[in-house]
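Problem 12. The chain below contains 200 residues. Write out its predicted structure in token notation.
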Amino acid sequence: MAWNIEGTYYENCSCDAVCPCTWSNMTQPATNEDCRVALLFEVEKGAIEGVDVAGTTCVVIMQTPRQMLEGGFKAGLVVDDGASDAQAEALGKVFGGAAGGPMAGLAPLITEFVGMERLPVSVSHEGKNHHIVVGEGLDFGLNMETTPDGEPIQLTNIVVHPAGPTLAVAIADNVKNSMFGIEWAGSGLSGFSNAFAWAA
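Solution.
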């Protein structure tokens, strides 16, 4: 199965910023009793088995143990409701890990997949900051952290994260998330954003 996609990635999780699971490549435990995370991928261009998926968005929702390498993840997938059935099917293969690529590395850790939903997805921007709304279930802001010169503050050598190896750091505020029975809320939480490019 040949495919390639690229675009922009946005994340919020229930850990305090900056998420220890991420900067430690999963060797350090989450801030709380578990980690609850939304990984949103805006696909700006690409094709999966000949299906053009440009202009679509996918969101992976997960609940993981405090020590991620233990596995036992609960996960669900959202595909934006503007995607066609063919696009949704193709994206499900990539973001579910069945098509290889970065998400295939997480697939062995997922023991409960709770399904896929089609929902409206909105990503808006104000300067370097972002606001994400997915249906009535996800709503959070990402305030990108920068140096005094305005350059993004980044984590590097993040080898176990599907959107790595470089992630720009954000602080997530006004978080009100509830989807697939996975809920978290608050401000001052962990967030990331970066360009991504995948192929297999």
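Discussion. The chain has one domain: 3-191. Students who got a different answer should revisit the alignment rule from Section 12.3.
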